[in-house]
Design brief:
The protein is of the alpha+beta class. About 30% of the residues lie in helices and about 35% in strands. A hairpin with a 4-residue loop joins β3 and β4 (about 70). The longest helix is centred in the N-terminal third of the chain and has 19 residues, at about 30-45.
Length: about 150
């Protein structure tokens, strides 16, 4: 009986409910790691912590901006510096979807992006890589506007 209780507690410890369009989903331990990394990344931006933000960038990171592509940790950190040094965060984001490749070393995260007033205006999509030491670093990042469901006119 004691073994059954310990097993049940262990299994329950691996489940983390997350909101995804109002549905409850269970995340694996690896998905929780990526969710935590993405959340820490967003929190570093909200705190205006340039060092913590840069610490989560992979050396070979590629970030897509509105008009350009930033390549490498240094270029991405410099490209985001004006956003990170503004008096208040111009936007925020939070992960809603996390999927991990079967290899366990690549992951995708996505979620809403909010303006300073809290209105959603976009969606972010990031690819994370688990490093040899077990830490997760963001490798690719690209945002997109919220789809209004209406097709573009030619």
């Amino acid at each position: 009986m004691r073994r059954a209780i310990l097993t049940a507690v262990s299994v329950l410890g691996l489940v983390l409910p997350a909101s995804l369009s109002g549905q409850s989903v269970a995340l694996t331990a690896v998905q929780r790691q990526v969710f935590a990394a993405e959340s820490a990344f967003a929190a570093s931006f909200a705190r205006r912590d340039t060092a913590a933000f840069a610490a989560l960038l992979a050396p070979d990171a590629v970030f897509f901006g509105r008009n350009s592509v930033m390549r490498g940790k240094v270029e991405v950190a410099e490209g985001w510096r004006p956003l990170l040094t503004a008096a208040a965060p111009p936007f925020s984001w939070k992960p809603e979807v996390v999927e991990v490749a079967a290899s366990g070393d690549l992951a995708f995260s996505s979620g809403p992006v909010f303006d300073a007033e809290g209105r959603q205006f976009g969606v972010f999509n990031s690819i994370w890589r688990r490093e040899r030491d077990g830490t997760w670093l963001v490798v690719f990042d690209k945002g997109s506007p919220v789809c209004n469901g209406e097709p573009k006119k030619p």
